[in-house]
Structures are given as C-alpha cells and as structure tokens.
Fold:
Amino acid sequence: MQVQLKVNGQSATVDVAPNTLLVHALREHLKLTGTHVGCDTAQCGACTVIVNGRAIKSCNTLAAQHTGAEVTTIEGLAQADGTMHPMQAAFKECHGLQCGFCTTGMVMSAVDLCKHHPKAGEAEIRELLEGNICRCTGYQNIVKAVQQGQAAMASA
Amino acid sequence: MGAADFANLPHIGESVRRKEDYRFLTGAGNYTDDIHMAHERYAVFVRSPHAHAAIKGISVATAEAMPGVSKVFTGKDVEGKMGGLPCGWLITSTDGSPMKEPPHPILAQGKVRYVGDHVAMVVADTIEHAKNAAEAVEVDYDVLPAVVSVSDAGKAIALHEAAPDNHCYKWAIGDKAAVDAVFAKAAHVTKLDLTNNRLIPNAMEPRAAIGSYNRASDEYTLYVANQNPHVERLLMTAFVLGLPEHKVRVIAPDVGGGFGSKIFLYAEDVALTWAAKQLNCSIKWTAERSESFLSDAHGRDHVSRAEMAMDKDGKFLAMRVHTDANMGAYLSTFSTAVPTILYATLLAGQYTCPQIYVEVDAWFTNTAPVDAYRGAGRPEATYLLERLVSRCGWELGLGQDEIRKRNFITSFPYQTPVALQYDVGDYHACMNKAQALADVAGFAARKAASKAKGLLRGQGYSSYIEACGIAPSNIAGALGARAGLFECGEIRVHPTGSVTVFTGSHSHGQGHETTFAQVVAARLGIPVENVDVVHGDTGRVPFGMGTYGSRSISVGGAAIMKALDKIETKAKKIAAHLMEASDADIEFSGGEFKVKGTDKKVAFAQVSLAAYVPHNYPLDKLEPGLNETAFYDPTNFTFPAGTYICEVEIDPATGTTRVDRFTAVDDFGTIINPMIVEGQVHGGLVQGIGQALLENCVYDKETGQLLTGSFMDYAMPRADDFPQFKLDTVCTPCSHNPLGTKGCGEAGAIGSPPAVINAVLDALAPLGVKEFDMPASPSRVWEAIVKAKA
Structure:
C-alpha cells in the first residue's frame, strides 16, 4: 500500500506492506538510518521520532497509521547548512553520547521534552527520559545536555 | 618520549570535544544494519526453544519451497565442512589435565544445549520471507532434563560427551597447605558465602553482521558489530573455515556499544560468511533484542565462599576462596580465562595479604555461554573481596575505612601472592579524597535525618584494583592464552602535514577518534582537526588485537607513541638535511624543528612536504615518505585503583532502595581527555550499580527457559534510578608505558557493586540482616528484612 508522509519537510510516498512499522518505512524505504531499532518491546526509545509535534516510538506503530503525518527524524533536526539544533550541540558540548546508538532517539525525546516541559528540573528530566535507555553514558551527561539544550531552546 | 614529558605536552589533559559526535548526532552514524549491499539477502536463525534436547530430525522442505527462500542450512550442511567455534584460552586443571573443550558447532549437530542454540539458518530475499520460512522449519526434538545452576551441574545429565559430569576444569592458584596453616592459628576468621548474579550485556545496538562474497576475486567481506576485527578474522579463518586470511576482510564499522559481548566470534558470523560463498551473494542478519537476550554471551554467574584469616588487630594474614563458575552450554572465546586468570589474580586487591589460595571449578549448564562482560573476572574478584573486607571490619568492630587503611599496600612495586606485580599506586590518597568528597563527616546527621523520616541509611565502601592491558604476550601464552596481546599503530603523515592514524584498537563509544588524535596532535604540535583516526577494518589497519580489558589507551596508545617516535626520528633527519645541520642538533617541539642554539627552524609541514616531494632530500641516506608502523607488547598490566563510597536510603516498609550519594575517586594515571574519562566512569558506575540494584538474568530451574528475556523483564538502569555522581581522581602515572596511562573503561563497573551492597548491609544491620545477594530490588530487600525479623 502507498502511504503519504511529510518527512523532514519533504513529501514522501512509501510503498509498504500493511504491517510495515513506521521505523522500517523510515529506515528501509526512505533510507533514513539515523533512527535505530534497539529492542522489540517499545522499551529502549532508540527509534524515537517526532510525529505531528510529539515524540513517539516508531517501532510501535504502523506506517499506515500515519498517512499525511509530519514526521521529523534526527536527519531533519539540523539546519540545511548542517548547523546542529541547540539540543544536538548541547549533547556534543556536554559529552551526552558515547557509542551513538541510543543518541538519535535520546535527542528526539529531549527536544520533545524541552518543548513540552520547558521548566523541567533535573529530577523531572530524569523521569521524563525513562522511556529511553542508554547503556554507555550513565545518563549524567545526558541530563546535563538536556538542561543545556533546554536553556538554549528557551533563548532561541 | 617518556611519560613525564608526554603528560606536560599542550592539550594533554584537555577536554577536547569529540570528533565523532557530529555524525552520531545527525543520524549519519554507519552501523552494520545501516549498510546495504547490492542484491543482499537476509538471514534468520532458527533457534532451539528447549534448554536441552536431542534433535531427532529436521525437515526443511516446506520452508525451502516458500516464496523468496534461497536455502535453509542445517547442521548437516556444515558438518565436516568447517570446525566449531574455538576457545581462546586453555586452562589446565590442578591434576595436569587440559580443560574439557567440547565441540561448539556453528549449527547444532544432533543436540541443542540452551534456549537460543543455533539450529538452522534460513536465507531469503526479504526479512519477512526469511522469518516466515523459519517458522516452517520443522525440528523434531526429544527433550532432555536441563540444568542451569553451578550447584546442580555436577549431578545433572551431561551436556557433552567430553564432560560426563559437566565439569570443565578445576584450577587453583596459591599454596593451599601454607594458607590452611595460617587459618589454623589465626586470631579471627571471617567467612562469607556469596553469589555474583548473572547479567546480560545489552549493548544498545544488537549484534549484526553481513557476510559477502565476490566470486571474481574469491574474496569475502564480513561487516560485523565487533570489538576486534582482526581477532574475529583470525579465529574464523584459521580455526573454523580454513580460509587464507588475505581473502577475508572484516569490517567493524560504527558499533553501538560492546562491553565485552562483541569481542567474541559467534556462530552467526561464521555461518553468514560461509553461506555467502555457497549462494554467491551478500547475506545480512541483525539480531532482534529477544535474540540478543538469548544468544549474546552473558556475564558473571559465580557462586563463592571466601574466608579471611586475621590477627587480633584486623591485619590480613591469609585468604581462602572457592568459586564455582558457570560457563554456560559451550566455551565462548575467552570464557575460560575470566574466572581464573582475570579473577583470581585480582584477589589481593589493595591489601597486603601474604598468602592467598583460590580454587575455581568451572561447569557446563544449559544456559547461554558466559564470557567477558565489562570488567571480566575483576568485578567478580572485587565484589567478593570488598564484601569480605567490610564484613571483617564489622566483625572486629572496625569501620569500613579503618579495616582497609590498616591493610593497604603502601610501598611499590608490590608483588602479590597471586602472580601480579603492582607498579605504582597511592591507596590512602584515594581513600582520603573519597572520604572528603563524600562528606563522610556528615553521614551521622544524614542517617539521623533519614531515621526521622522512617528510613534506613547506610554507607558502603569499596577500594578496588583493576588489571588492564593484559600482557605480556609470552607470559600470557605460558598461562594458556592462544593469542598475542600486543597492539599496532600506524602513523601516516600526508605531504601537507595532516595525519591519518591507523589503530588496531576499536572504538565503540570510547571516543578513540578524539583521544588518539589528541595524542598525535600533541606530539606533533599540529591541530587536533588535522588528525583523523581509522579503526575497525582489517583491510586498512595493520594486525591489531582490538578493544577489551580497558587496554586501548595503554596498549593501543602506546603503539601509536612508538610509531610517533619513529616519525620523529626520521623527520629530524629530514629537518637536519633541510637546515644543513647535524641530526643530533635538531630539537622538535611545538610543531617546529629547530637547530639547537640557533634561530634556524622548519615547520612540521615543511618536513612532511620534503618527505613526499624529495627534491631537496638525502636520498642516498633516507627513503622518501613519512609513514611508520609500530607494534607494542606491554611489559606488565596497568593497575588503576580507587575508592568508592555509596550511600543508600531504604524504605523498610517496601524495601525500596535508593542510591542517594555516590562518590568515586580513581587513579587512572595520566589522563588525556578528562571529559571522556569521566563519561567512562559514569557509564561503568551505572552498569555496576545496575547489577547491584536492578539487573538479574534468571533461567527457570526446571525448564531452562530464560525468564528475563526482554527489557520488560530484565531491569535495565534508567535515568531516574541514579543521583549525580561525585568524581575525582588521584594520579600516580603508570611506570612502564610511554603515556603513564592506566585505562578507565571498566573501573566504574568493577568498583561499584560492593560499595552499594555494603551500604545496603550497613543500613539493614540494625535489623539483623547479615547476608544479602544482588540485586537489591525492593522485593529482595523486603524479604531480607522480613526474614531477619522472623
């Protein structure tokens, strides 16, 4: 079946089976491999993308459910000239990533978190990141990055 | 260049932001599953649903007739065509016999021995087709009784013909008679039984591989999520497939975490590579998370009894340890070294204990193979020793700090009774700094405040030591290692003075692309931006051993330093020629070659250009070019050490345990990039505290089914499980490598579990709780409280 999406600002039509997950439509059909698959139970959050303004786990939803949706993946976060989004820059500055695998989902969650909870403090940020698992960083620098990204997004 | 000069170079000790981050942050990372080959096909493995069963028959006819299916491979297809997976470390039993080393077939040969054992490989044109066909492979099993724990293994039905009582080896170190004699006369003996819980590594990127074959050149390429591509290639070509190494290229591209679990040669990697030639194509396989749970090598799983003999003042006189170690169903690549060479040799810890005897029995069980996982033997040793030491203190009425201070080693080098010789360290300095940073003085007030809220507060100590950069190769070889333990480094200076570094170390989160670039940039006096690091490709990098055991900077970095020495020597000769001076009069610093006592100088880039455009060049004495390779085999381990202090708060009504404070003071020797080192410690701490509080791999005792087979059942540490950690460092530079570094990748995971559990026991002591095994989940803590009250 054909599913029409708007991905990172561009119209995209994918020809997928009805049972194709959104993450596979993005990774396999649109070759947007920045969105990762880290589990099969919607627990790890590596596949997080923003759909119509909210972060969702793209492994837990069918592509077909999102006809007409606006999808932002990690590839769509930076500016056209390659300048990173303030949250991406904060992750780099604070060393909020190591192997990079959970990072893309973590950044998408963080962007959503700061948009909807612009005043969240450390404890709330930790709680709101519950849906994203990182095995490398111990979260300390991720939390620091989200706080720094939050401040940068507020002043942008 | 020596370690002292190195530490003083500009930019050594600076938190340079990571060069690799832009690609990871913008979704441009290149992990194995992101790679697509022309005309690729997909593999799905049919895995055993039983922990132990005989295979009476396999029918693939239905599956092979299904749409898109190329072929279904079973044990029969590979039988006689390849060897099994080799074990990389031979352990010899106390009676002189070699360990039992049963075959570890690529696809099951008549029997399956754990849930997840590889039975068949289905190859099809799409993943969907391969999955559908895998469902249609009919395997007729005759189910056998299963055993999952070391305590039951000796009485259970044998897994392997080669090991009739499921016993793999009995290994020992130390003088038993001498130790027994000390125990017989000791003023006080402290005893402790404990279990080191089994863990599942769970790197966030599941294992993945693409086997590819090119008929025209008769060459294979294997893309694989792996920590040591040359080791992978050597084991696969020389021991399993019998292929010439130059025809096989192994590429480990961006790898999403390893923690040990991606060191090993796995059956899937071999099957994909071999089948690529059979089908003349590329075949891709990516593990689903549930497959990772079942089939990645697990970690830990020790059951031990430890005893310490002391004099009346708490001075350690002798230690006696017996450990039963679970190997799982087969011997994974370095499994046998973990509970022996990497474990028992660490049991002296930071203490003067003149006599130590350790005996280890290793057992086969119907569980996934167990192998190195972040720390590999050293966390098991540290957990046992640091739990025992705290208990010694409690029994003698000494504080956890006091019992440690009374026994700390203070003079170096120090020869332990368990083979290792520590070169340097300052254990009192780490302890003192940790106590100040943890505000130990304020603990009593915090405990009273907790009590006022109806909560229990406890404080736990752990003073760990770690041995990194396992070496030298000749001694490791004498101890059973079937591999070398050196590292390679190649420095390719380009004509205009920028540099590409080729290293055998592999970065899968550790930030080598930045740290190694810092080393080279500092030495050559050029910007970090002018240095790029290449790793993870046997087609580009000289033979190297890869990344494990916190070895990368101390062994891989040292190889790079040796190559830089060669570059500097040659470049000085070129500079001498350019300035018409004698080689001996050339000094190199800040990226400039100067003639001693004059104002004559040439920049590094002028020298590199002369090397590649040798118009004005001593061609009669010197080859053109500026490209040097070095191999470095360490003379000893490095010995990072530190003291960790944990404070927990427990709600006795629910058993909920919260880590309120955690302080870590480490001695990693010279630190090149403090930001990266701190990040490594944070990650290690969360894995260690995760083991102590949350994580536990459980197999059903009767059926051998994995009960913790998903993130819904296996409690992974999450952001809201932790406070902010307080870190600091002490520096006694390593005395025997050119950087003075010791390694930092595993320390956090090694030092933290006993600190947490000692804190839990300290909190629960007023209730009479004396025994506790990890993890301190609410239900287990609550049960311990209820049991103590009864």
Observations:
- Chain A has a mean pLDDT of 97.
- The CA atoms of residues 117 and 125 of chain A lie 9 Å apart.
